[in-house]
Amino acid sequence: MKRSTLAALFVLTSGIAFGNVFEDKAKEFCDKGEAEVCTDLGNYYREGNSKYQIEKDATKAVEMLTKGCDLSSAAGCNVLGYMHGNGLGVKKDLAKAAELYQKACDGREATGCFNLGVMYDNGQGVKKNVIKAVELYQKACTGGDDTGCFNLGMKYYKGDGVRKNNAEALKSFSKACNMKVQDACDAYANLKSGKLK
Q: 107 — phi, psi (to 5°)?
C-alpha cells in the first residue's frame, strides 16, 4: 500500500470519537495484506497514539509488526527486531532480533543494517565480527542511516575491522554531519584540523 492510501485512511477516519473506527479499518487493511498498514498500526500500539485513541500495548504491537514483517515490510522487521532485542511484548531474544534485523537489511531498511552492524560489533545475538559490522555500517550509510555513517567513520578512523583511512573517515563523518549528527561534525572538524591523529 502506498503512503497516500494510508493517508486517505487517516483522513477518512479522522475526527471519529466513537469506537475506534480507525483502528478497525487499519486492521482490515492489514488483514488484506497491506504490509505498511500493519507496520504503522504496530508502531501506534508500540508508542500509543492519542489522536486515534490507540492505547500503548506492546503485545498488540508485536502482533501487528509480525504481520507487517511477514508481508515483507522491511521497516516492520526492523522495529520487530527492536522489540525482540529489548524484550518488549515478547521474551528478550537477541538471536531473533539479529535475524529480524537481517531481514530488514535485506529489504533495504538502512536502520536494520545499522542495528545488525551494532550486534556484530558487540557480539550480541551473533558471533562478534567487526569486519561484518563495517560492511553493515557501509550498507546503512549508503542507505541514508546517519549513525551508520558515523560508526563507519569511526571504524575508518580507528582502523577497526578495516584499514585505517582518514580520508574515508572524513567522507563518512561529513555525510553524517550533513544528516545533523553533531558528534560526526565534531569528529570531522577535529580530524580535519589535526586534533584527532
A: -90, 15
For cell 466513537, the residue is: 18
Cell 545475538, located at residue: 125
Q: What is the pLDDT of residues 47-93, one digit of tens each?
A: 999 888 899 999 999 999 999 999 999 999 999 999 999 999 999 99
Q: Is the torsion defined by CA of 106, 112, 118, 122 positive or negative?
A: negative
The CA distance from 1 to 101, in Å, is 22
CATH architecture, range 130-197? Alpha Horseshoe (1.25)
The closest alpha carbon to 58, from 77, 79, 37, 78, belongs to 79
Residue-level length of the chain: 197
- Who wins on pLDDT, 12 or 131? 131
Structure-block grid coordinates of residue 16: 471519529
CATH classification number, 1-108, choose in 1.25.40.10, 3.40.190.10, 3.60.20.10, 3.40.630.10: 1.25.40.10
